[in-house]
Amino acid sequence: MSTQVSPATQVSALTIRSYRPTDHRECRQLWAEMTAADAGLYGATSDDDSGAAFEEYLTRLDLSGMWVASDVGGGVVGMVGLVLDGRGGEVEPLVVASSRRGEGIGRTLLSHVAEQGRRRGLGRLSISPSARNLDAIRCLHAAGYDALARLTLSIDLQSSRESVFRDGVDLCDLRFRY
């Protein structure tokens, strides 16, 4: 299925369609961009081949679908995947080319994956953005992801001097670093 997005609501017309093997290079590059951005949030550097995990992602047995957003010229400017998780699904990944953020591409991909989840009879969708990715968290909240379903907590095994975590989030009357 292909979803057309009106030029009136976007900078340019988009088509949301299923991933094709011919999208591999562009999607791998988007994955590398996402990996580098996530690493940068915590002051780390990504691997030289930060797109390599994309190959492993494509082999997941629980991957239910993957869709891309392509622009008028046919170039891939975003992608979203749906991973099965019991009676629900996990949106993994959601990535938009950094040069195209703020145009509503992410919201369009989220809307598309939600519709795909409904068609598959899923009861819920979850997504796990990095705690420091405030732009993503705001975008996801605006798209309806406003229920906390689970948390991922980490223990920092580095000495406090080398810690990449910041103080500053309160939840359930407890203080967390992020």
Order of neighbouring strands in the sheet with most strands: 1-2-3-4-5-6
Q: Output the radius of gyration.
A: 17 Å
Mean pLDDT: 87
* Estimated structural class: alpha+beta
Please give the alpha-carbon distance between the first and last residues.
39 Å
Strand content: 25-35%
Number of E strands? 8
Shape: globular
State the order of secondary-structure elements, H for helix, E for strand.
EEHHEEEHEHEE
Query: Helicity, in percent?
Result: 25-40%
Largest sheet: 6 strands, mixed
Unreliable spans: 1-11
Number of helices: 4
Describe this structure in words.
With 178 residues, this protein is α+β, with helices and mostly antiparallel strands. 27% of the residues lie in helices and 26% in strands. The chain contains 4 helices and 8 strands. The strands form 2 sheets. Strands 1-2-3-4-5-6 form a 6-stranded mixed β-sheet. The chain has a two-stranded antiparallel sheet with strand order 7-8. It starts with a strand and ends with a strand.
Keywords:
single chain, 178 residues, alpha+beta, two-stranded antiparallel ribbon, 27% helix
Q: Strands, helices and their partners?
A:
Elements: E1 3-5, E2 14-18, H1 24-41, H2 53-58, E3 63-70, E4 76-85, E5 88-96, H3 105-119, E6 125-126, H4 134-142, E7 167-171, E8 174-177
Parallel strand pairs: 5-6
Antiparallel strand pairs: 1-2, 2-3, 3-4, 4-5, 7-8
Short description:
The chain is an alpha+beta fold.
